[in-house]
Amino acid sequence: MLNEIYNNTKSNMQKVLDSLRRDFGTLRSGKVSTMILDNIRVDYYGTPTPLNQIGSVIAKDATTIIVTPWEKTLLKDIERAIAEANIGVNPNSDSDSVKLFFPPMTKEQRVAIAKEAKAMGEKSKIALRNIRQDSNNTIKKIEKEKSITEDESRVAHDEIQKYTDDFVKKVDEMVKNKEEDILKV
Question: Is pLDDT of 3 > 70?
Answer without folding.
Answer: yes
